Amino acid sequence: MDDLTEVKNFKYSETTKIFKEAQDFLPILGTDYVEMYVGNAKQAAHFYKTAFGFQELAYSGLETGQRDKVSYVLQQGKIRLVLTTPFDKNSEISEHIRIHGDGVKVIALWVEDAYDAFEQTTKRGAKAYVQPHEKKDENGVVRISGIHTYGDTVHLFIERKNYKGLFLPGFEKWETEYQPHSMGLKYIDHMVGNVGMGEMNIWSKFYGEVMGFFNLVTFDDKDISTEYTALMSKVMTNGNGFIKFPINEPAVGKKKSQVEEYLDFYNGPGCQHIAVATDDIVHTVSEMRKHGVEFLYVPGSYYDTVANRVGIIEEDLTTLKKWGIMVDRDEEGYLLQIFTKPVEDRPTLFFEIIQRKGAKSFGKGNFQALFESIEAEQARRGTL
């Protein structure tokens, strides 16, 4: 996690630079890991290895002295995914799974000073989740603290400059004979949170005032809508641009939007999707499809207007159409993106695969086609 060159060329105006140098009181070095609470971590780990190409990294459970839960740590590129299942039926983890199903609990942020991060955020109004403390083993010391954010989601601040171990104290190397190949995922581009109607401004203000983020871009219901549904979104980012959190809320429409469907099935706000970056989206998506990952269907007519809307791109449009990969352009370049279907039975968490060819945007030109695809899935589920 000491090489951040994968997060490339994030540009700001000089005015924004000056503002952020003054306001960025919480320097974040990157996403440390994402932890999901799941019903069966061993089986979930096998799924993410097989379908997404994650590699084994570390393990904590009964064999390591952990009596109340088990955790498997997977890695691909700079992405670390932790899958945790409880043993205690009355634990916080069990309650989280009972209410939400499998879902993201922890978005851990890699910081230079976890104690200062806790002080800076709590004095600005954050609710404490984990008091600052140390974890030690023969490989050194990790300092950890944490705060609450939307719903039951939390941020942990991880300081590991004095630690040389594999992951965290309490974990041991995890290795089996089954070692699937990487599918080219590099790092987390952004993570999207869904909140209730009227709560988007509350949480964008939280990230602005409590964590020193600023509003990179705003989309309203005119930008993200169809005849039937709509949502609004504010993209919040930290000072160096390594962390981007779009915050979505539903907007009034004729039918139930994707955000409302998520909130109903997740039983509250939470992480809607994780966008992971690749340098070769055609390779990544083709491999993931071969290994069982299902993606949203993009109507073939979508590609009739791509050339006029996006202009010249390096990729062959026929190939993109074959794999259902969408394209959009901004003033900096273009991007390619595709969205999986939900990765569990509840229509909640899904993944976005994204390749940026200079673009810093979030695919505004694809919103219409994307919404129509999501609505088609909602109609099949009877939840539109």
Distance between the termini: 41 Å
Largest sheet features: 9 strands, mixed
Q: What are the segments in which pLDDT stays under 50 over at least 5 consecutive residues?
A: 1-22
Strand sequence of the main sheet, in spatial order? 6-7-8-5-1-4-3-2-9
Strand percent estimate: 25-35%
What characteristic shape results from the CA principal axes?
globular
Secondary-structure element pattern, one letter each: HEHEEEHEHEEEEEHEEEHEHHHEEEH
* Helicity level: 25-40%
Per DSSP E runs of 2 or more residues, the count of β-strands stands at 17
How confident is the prediction overall: mean pLDDT? 89
Tally of individual helices: 10
Q: What is the structural class?
A: alpha+beta
Radius of gyration: 20 Å
Keywords for this structure?
384 residues; eight-stranded mixed sheet; disordered N terminus
Model description:
- 25% of the residues lie in helices and 34% in strands.
- The protein is built from ten helices and 17 strands.
- The N terminus is likely disordered.
- It has 384 residues and is of the alpha+beta class.
- A hairpin with a 5-residue loop joins strand 7 and strand 8.
- The strands form two sheets. The protein has a nine-stranded mixed β-sheet. It has an eight-stranded mixed β-sheet with strand order 11-12-13-10-14-17-16-15.
- The chain is globular, with a radius of gyration of 20 Å.
Concise account of the structure shown:
Helices cover 25% and strands 34% of the residues. By secondary structure, it is α+β, with helices and mostly antiparallel strands.
